[in-house]
Amino acid sequence: MAIDAGLGAIGFLVARILFGGLLAFQGLNHFQNADTMSGYAQSKGVPAARASVLLSGGMLIFGGLGIVLGVFPAITAGAVAVFLLVTTPMMHDFWAVPEDQQQAEMTNFIKNVELLGAALVFLVLSSDPWAYALNVSLGL
Predict the structure, then answer these.
(1) Matching Pfam families, A to Z (predicted)?
(2) How far, in Å, CA of 16 to CA of 68, rounded?
(3) Theoretical Cys-Cys bridge with 68: which of 20, 26, 93, 102, CB 3.0 to 4.6 Å?
(4) pTM higher than 0.85, yes or no?
C-alpha cells in the first residue's frame, strides 16, 4: 500500500511530522528534565532510573526523527512501539496507584496505547517507500 502521490502523500507527510516530531520533542524533554523524570521513574520502581530515562529519551528522538525523515522506518517505528509497550504499563499503572492519581495515570495509559496504535501503523507502512522521505532502510 504505497502512499506516493497527491494529497495522500502530503497528508502522510503531515502525519509523520506531527507524530514523529512530537515524539522527538518528548525525547528531548527526557534529557532536559532528566532529574525530575528520573525521580518519577524511581518512584515507579524502574531500575537504573536515570539511565532508563536517558535511554528512553534517545529511543524517542531516534524513533521520532526516523519517522519524520523516513530513515530506517521499520527500525524507528519499531523502536517507538517497543518503548511504548515497555513503558506504558510500568509508568502508567492506573490500577495500582492511589485513587486520587488513577484518573491521570489512566489518561496517560490510554494516550500511550493510542500512540502505540499509530506506531504500529507506521511500522506496517514501512515496507513501502514513503513519499517525501529519505527512504533509507536495511531492506527489512
Answers:
(1) DoxX (PF07681)
(2) 5
(3) 20
(4) yes
